[in-house]
């Protein structure tokens, strides 16, 4: 890992809880921006969302993104009304708290890579009694690692929470973490920087939501028109990227997004989205009720939620009204 990349990671981590106002169309004085909470650092993975937010701004819906230091803090900010929209898949939070929060757009499905330092471990069985590192409590990375714990009959000594796939990959390269889970871009980085030192552990096929957008029912009702425009732009942006992933690089330059990314990090954007599109990471339909059953089945197997996926009402966790209205309008 280059010193430049390490410096960026430290700077990005220190920038958490800052707010970024996007350009788009000038907001009228009475317009309140739709504020989006991201419990992570800004990275190439954020570009598709940022592009959709810019496009919504061009249609008169000003938007801002605020970075928090974890998904737990972000969901509390949504619940308290500090922000309007959150990024994540808060099934467990909704079930445990009965909070009036509903997901409304499925942004991505899980595509993660459990990876170990091969000088220390060689397979899942070696992680019995060992520490592993994931993104955050309640995240898809934790669910995957918990599920593998069950499937392989092992028990971790501890799960540590380190937001940011880039940060976890950096810790692997520095030797401070020996077992973690990263995204495709950072798995490539580990291969490039470490070669055979970093081994990918096998993952049985999993079809589950990685990240969705969610809001309180009050926000969905009070800002229904603005939210629908945003969802329309999400659908359009996801479709454009699926057709031509190179558009991510073009629109990043056009909108001036994430200008502080080092060149070697920014250059990963198009390859990352090309690989993600190829692997179906970014669904273009925004989500369906059947996806909720898949999510519940996955999370229940990982011990994060309870209940039979065939008996749970999808509307307990999702509101598809905005998505259906946006599809009808396109």
TrEMBL record:
The keyword Signal applies. The keyword Lipid metabolism does not apply. Keywords: Signal. InterPro entries: SsuA/THI5, TAT_signal. Residues 59-246 form the SsuA/THI5-like domain. It comes from the Bacteria. It holds the Pfam family NMT1. Residues 1-29 form the signal peptide. This is NitT/TauT family transport system substrate-binding protein. It comes from Roseivivax sediminis. The lineage of its organism: Bacteria, Pseudomonadati, Pseudomonadota, Alphaproteobacteria, Rhodobacterales.
């Amino acid at each position: 890992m280059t010193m430049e990349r390490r410096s960026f990671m430290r700077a990005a981590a220190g920038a958490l809880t800052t707010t970024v106002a996007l350009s788009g169309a000038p907001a009228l004085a009475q317009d309140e921006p739709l504020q989006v909470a991201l419990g992570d650092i800004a990275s190439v993975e954020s570009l598709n969302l940022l592009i959709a937010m810019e496009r919504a701004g061009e249609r008169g819906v000003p938007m801002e993104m605020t970075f928090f230091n974890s998904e737990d803090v972000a969901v509390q900010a949504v619940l308290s009304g500090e922000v309007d929209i959150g990024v994540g898949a808060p099934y467990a939070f909704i079930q445990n708290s009965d909070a009036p929060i509903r997901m409304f757009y499925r942004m991505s499905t899980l595509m993660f890579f459990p990876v170990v330092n091969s000088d220390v471990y060689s397979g899942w069985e070696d992680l019995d009694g060992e520490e592993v590192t994931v993104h955050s409590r309640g995240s898809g990375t934790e669910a995957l690692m918990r599920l593998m714990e069950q499937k392989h009959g092992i028990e971790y000594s501890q799960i540590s929470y380190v937001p940011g796939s880039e940060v976890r990959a950096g810790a692997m390269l520095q030797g401070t973490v020996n077992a973690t889970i990263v995204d495709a871009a950072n798995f490539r980085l580990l291969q490039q920087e470490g070669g055979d030192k970093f081994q990918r552990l096998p993952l049985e096929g999993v079809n589950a939501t990685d990240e969705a957008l969610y809001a309180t029912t009050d926000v969905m009702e009070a800002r229904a028109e603005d939210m629908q425009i945003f969802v329309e732009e999400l659908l359009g942006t996801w479709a454009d990227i699926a057709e031509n992933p190179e558009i991510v690089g073009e629109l990043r330059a056009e909108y001036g997004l994430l200008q502080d990314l080092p060149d070697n990090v920014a250059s990963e954007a198009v390859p990352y989205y090309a690989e993600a599109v190829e692997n179906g990471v970014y669904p273009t339909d925004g989500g369906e009720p059947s996806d909720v059953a898949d999510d519940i089945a996955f999370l229940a197997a990982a011990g994060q939620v309870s209940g039979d996926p065939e008996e749970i009402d999808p509307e307990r966790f999702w509101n598809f009204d905005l998505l259906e209205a946006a599809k009808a309008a396109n």
